[in-house]
């Protein structure tokens, strides 16, 4: 081993011995504070981005230029007024024991209450 | 890679939990390597206070990249590389790196080396003599003599030729030896 190498090795040993620093709790606490700060920043950034995205989507839906039909009228397949009249008539026929009339009215009601094809008008 | 505890293996379950960001595991990961990182940083930067600041930066960076680690045994080496790289970046940002001037002599005789070795053995505070080196020379000395990097590894790390690294290292040692021999410290 050359003298220079000896000197180099001795220097390494002396430097190693001179640097025996240990990481104390304060260092970890400082590190933790910085990590917490970073996490808070990230959370704030993400929530801001999510809010902006939501607002953007909402605006897009509201102002996309899509025109809803002005009116969509659905013709009621069942005339509820007529049904009510029939129900009253059925009850009165039952009270009168007029079975034929009851059967006739029930049939009429069933006929009226059948599902009708739906029609739409714009 | 075993210098200063970078080579101490960490339990795979601690690493996995740390990769998931569990606070307890992060603290255990930190405790496992903190001394090694702090010594390397203080040694390379030549200041315990700067070393503490840089240690925090290194762990913040390390925690953010932990998920990339697949092999628990490789963690120490990876963290050491990260620490060295960030320490070099810090030095570059300070823009205090100085190159040795060409007129510095890098040849002294065996007698002078013997005298320097004696002086170094007797020296109380080795950091006092290190103060005569430029930051780049200090980095070279620290990484070669303490951390066990080879000239070739240093050349790759510092993006210099191996010959240049050898020459600069020799000049750094010569500078230290000359100062010791002259008894200026």
What does this structure look like?
The complex is a heterodimer of chains A (122) and B (185). Helix content of chain A is 69%, strand content 3%. Chain A is built from four helices and two strands, in the order H-H-E-H-H-E. Chain A has a two-stranded antiparallel ribbon. The termini of chain A are far apart. Chain B starts with 11 loop residues before the first helix and ends with a helix. About 3% of the residues of chain B have low confidence. The chains are: A mainly alpha (122), B mainly alpha (185). At the A-B interface, helix 1 and helix 2 of A face helix 2, helix 3, helix 5, helix 6 and helix 7 of B.
Note the main attributes of this structure:
heterodimer; A: 122 residues; mainly alpha; two-stranded antiparallel sheet; 4 helices; 3% strand; B: 185 residues; elongated
Give average pLDDT of chain A, whole number. 82
Largest sheet of chain A: 2 strands, antiparallel
Task: Report strand order across the widest sheet of chain A.
Answer: 1-2
The arrangement of helices and strands of chain A along the chain is HHEHHE
The oligomerization state is: heterodimer
Into which percentage range does the β-strand content of chain A fall?
A: under 5%
Largest sheet of chain B: none
Principal-axis shape of chain A: rod-shaped
Total number of helices of chain A = 4
Percent helix range of chain A = 55-70%
Helix/strand order of chain B:
HHHHHHHHH
| Share of residues in strands of chain B | under 5%
Kindly summarize this structure in a few lines:
The complex is a heterodimer of chains A (122) and B (185). Chain A is mostly helical and 122 residues long.
């Amino acid at each position: 081993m050359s003298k220079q190498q000896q000197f180099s090795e001795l220097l390494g040993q002396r430097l190693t011995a001179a640097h025996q620093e240990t990481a104390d709790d304060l260092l970890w606490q400082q590190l933790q504070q910085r990590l917490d700060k970073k996490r808070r920043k990230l959370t704030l950034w993400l929530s801001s981005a999510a809010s902006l995205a939501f607002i953007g989507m909402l605006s897009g839906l509201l102002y996309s230029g899509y025109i809803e039909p002005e009116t969509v009228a659905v013709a009621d397949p069942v005339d509820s007024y007529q049904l009510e009249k029939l129900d009253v008539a059925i009850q009165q026929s039952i009270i009168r024991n007029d079975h034929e009339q009851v059967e006739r009215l029930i049939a009429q009601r069933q006929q009226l209450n059948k599902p009708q094809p739906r029609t739409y008008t714009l | 890679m075993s210098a200063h505890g970078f080579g101490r293996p960490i339990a795979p379950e601690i690493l996995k939990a740390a990769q998931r960001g569990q606070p307890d595991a992060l603290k255990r990961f930190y405790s496992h390597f903190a001394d090694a990182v702090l010594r390397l940083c203080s040694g390379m930067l030549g200041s315990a206070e700067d070393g503490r600041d840089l240690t925090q930066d290194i762990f913040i960076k390390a925690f953010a990249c932990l998920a990339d680690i697949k092999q628990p045994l490789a963690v120490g080496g990876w963290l050491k590389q990260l620490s060295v790289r960030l320490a070099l970046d810090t030095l570059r940002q300070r823009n205090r790196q100085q190159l040795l001037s060409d007129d510095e002599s890098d040849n002294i005789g065996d007698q002078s080396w013997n005298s320097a070795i004696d002086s170094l053995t007797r020296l109380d505070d080795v950091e006092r003599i290190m103060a005569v080196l430029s930051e780049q020379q200090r980095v070279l000395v620290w990484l070669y003599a303490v951390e066990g990097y080879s000239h070739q590894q240093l050349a790759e790390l510092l993006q210099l030729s191996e010959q240049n690294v050898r020459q600069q290292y020799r000049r750094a040692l010569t500078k230290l030896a000359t100062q010791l021999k002259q008894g200026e410290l």
